[in-house]
Amino acid sequence: MFLTNCSEYSILAVIPLAVWSIVVNILLYFPNGVNTYAANNQLTNYVWYFQGICFGGILMIILSAVLLLVDFYKCSSTCCAGKQLCHIQCSKLETALFALLGVLFSGYSLIISSLGLSQGPYCRTDTGWRYPFANTGGSYLTDYPSWSQCLEPAKVVEWNIILFSILIALSALQVIICLCKATYDVMVVFCGTHQILAQPDPI
């Protein structure tokens, strides 16, 4: 029952998740609402992979729409003349493949966002513009005093941590939903055709 509900209804949740991914990714281009850093290419390189805008956003919206349309129109019902037997056939192979494609898209967004969080921001320090936390293996996340190394943009460490973390959470939810969808559809494929037996009318 859980897999059925997840497959048939939870795919709708991918759309708002994708919209939020687009919004969050766009915010990464404007630390503290300032647009000059993007114009001067003074942002972390992982914001230019468009993981939230394209892969976790636009492509996931398109994919979700396709999945919903395929689920709605792909089911066909045929009745055999002269027999009290109706076959309702729903091919789930296509939707399973689309769902796995969604796993790849959202997984890409998850990986790139994780790498961006681990690397840390590109910022101006006492020695110039660089990645001061690139070799820390992500340990800077709890080393709050070290954040003061970034002099510009202001509060860029907090900005990146919050937004990349949100992207990671959104992408992870998309991966879970698409995996659930793919799992259910593959189970339907292996179980075969659904059949409904119609009882003859009483004489």
TrEMBL record:
Transmembrane segments: 9-28, 48-72, 93-112, 161-180
A Gene Ontology term for the protein's cellular component: membrane
Localisation per UniProt entry: Membrane
Chief location: membrane
Membrane topology: Multi-pass membrane protein
Keyword annotations of the record: Membrane, Transmembrane, Transmembrane helix
Similarity comment text for this entry: Belongs to the L6 tetraspanin family.
Listed name of the protein: Transmembrane 4 L6 family member 18
Organism: Eleutherodactylus coqui
